[in-house]
Design brief:
The chain has about 120 residues and is an all-beta fold. About 0% of the residues lie in helices and about 30% in strands. The chain is built from no helices and 8 strands.
């Protein structure tokens, strides 16, 4: 699997805390070398939410393994099937979410569907 590179244009927000995630330089899932991956991580202390352009959002347990029981958004781009990331929220319209595709830059909102 190719490594994810940090992008100035990819500004993923944590779906839990709505803060910008930072590129994590160390591989995750270190126990299994075949599943090691680089990802964006939430900046809030004790938050285990990550985003990777290949996997989308996922959570790790305290011991560093993928935690499947936690619910994470699985918004996929209708154009290319890539996992989209949360790019923007609106503080005034609490339900508004803008999702962006890291592959084709397609945009989707929970109000409009696919845009641009």
């Amino acid at each position: 699997m190719p490594a994810i590179q940090p992008s100035k244009e990819l500004r993923a927000l944590c779906h839990e805390h709505h803060v910008e995630m930072k590129f994590n330089q160390s591989p995750l899932d270190s126990k299994d070398v075949s599943t090691q991956t680089l990802a964006y991580a939430c900046t809030q202390s004790d938050c285990l939410v990550y985003y990777n352009i290949f996997r989308g959002y996922f959570m790790l347990s305290q011991n560093g393994n993928t935690h499947q029981a936690d619910m994470v958004p699985e918004v996929r781009c209708p154009r290319d099937g890539a996992p989209m990331y949360l790019a923007e929220i609106d503080q005034e319209k609490r339900d508004f979410r803008l999702w962006r595709c890291p592959q084709c830059d397609g945009r989707r909102t929970n109000e409009e569907g696919l845009v641009g």
